[in-house]
Design brief:
By secondary structure, the protein is of the alpha+beta class. Helix content is 30%, strand content 42%. The chain contains four helices and six strands. The relative contact order is 0.19.
């Protein structure tokens, strides 16, 4: 990992906090947008691919909360393993294996996943995910014939 002088957090520390906040929000009985502010900057933007059911640019804490709500409707289980990351200044490049289970069908898919993440003051300001095969995700989400 690359660190600049004065960095407070390693790439993995930033990611672990961000994913912990995300998972807590996804699993919470009641939603608390302010809880997202621990890891997400108020000006955050997350850019999801147009081929997914939660496509688009999700802006601000309310937008990220809405994205997570939509993901919870689509996926019954979301997990990552073998996460690796490097940091250059405020940018973190992350790779992992992503595991998703479709809520409607119960079908699971696992695939490589990468993300370019930009942070300010230890909180995410911009997230750009790269799914290995959005077609495979769409296939497990498609209504049964």
């Amino acid at each position: 990992m690359t660190h600049q002088p004065g960095d407070q957090h390693s790439a993995m520390q930033l990611l672990e906090r961000m994913f912990a906040v995300e998972m807590a929000f996804l699993n919470a009985e009641t939603e608390d947008l302010e809880a997202l502010a621990v890891a997400f900057h108020p000006d955050v933007v997350v850019h999801e691919p147009s081929s997914l059911p939660y496509a688009g640019d999700w802006r601000g804490l309310a937008g990220v909360g809405a994205l997570f709500r939509r993901m919870r409707e689509v996926w019954s289980d979301i997990g990552v393993e073998r996460m690796e990351a490097v940091r250059a200044g405020d940018t973190v490049l992350m790779t992992c294996t992503l595991h998703l289970t479709a809520r409607r069908s119960g079908e699971a898919v696992s695939q490589p996943f990468a993300e370019v993440l930009r942070f300010r003051d230890g909180r995410l300001t911009d997230g750009l995910p790269f799914y290995h095969d959005t077609g495979a995700l769409a296939a497990v989400l498609a209504p049964s014939p």
